[in-house]
Amino acid sequence: MSKMEYVKPADIEKRSFEIITEELGDRTFPPDIAPVVKRVIHTSADFDYADNLVFSEGAVARARKAIEAGAHIVTDTNMAKAGINKKILAQFGGEVHCFVADEDVAAEAKARGVTRSTVSMERAARLDVPLIFAIGNAPTALVEIRRLVDEGTLSPELVIGVPVGFVNVVESKELIVESGVPHIVARGRKGGSNVAAAIVNALLYQLVRREGF
Length: 213
Hints:
Layout: H1 12-24, H2 34-44, H3 49-52, E1 53-55, H4 59-68, E2 72-75, H5 78-83, H6 86-91, E3 96-97, H7 103-112, H8 116-125, E4 131-135, H9 139-150, E5 158-161, H10 169-177, E6 183-186, H11 193-209
Parallel strand pairs: 2-3, 2-4, 4-5, 5-6
Antiparallel strand pairs: 1-6
């Protein structure tokens, strides 16, 4: 049996990040990107994110500036919404929105023959505030964001595109990468609501803790 390492409860997260840094070895990242990559690895225990996370130029700085100016976060699942640190976001005047479980959204989606995520993104586009999208589940949400961007009705501060799965997941992420909008995308099949929330939290923690792992 391997010997367990005793770590005080308050130091567990710190020690986890130390282990991540050790296991990354010679891999280094720009100072603004490193906390995002490492927090996603911390959340998922998956080092593939060191390679598959892609950042548009200046994405982290733009997102942090938007949050400081009161940007709101839109998610495609209540799981992602639950995982985001809303207390910190509220310090800057922001809120988290998820419309996917709303009864009127479900009814409209059924009537139109589209997904609830599609209708949810349309609802989000009507919010008269700067928006950051954190999409961890639905490729159709990314497809709709791209459509709204192309028609000029939506200009996101950032799109976090990390749906997980097999059907249209890879393709929908590439739509965002190719769109020209500021983005953080996990290329390939991996992702999830927990990853979307982790990326948002990494941005928030940089603002209040000035993380520099």
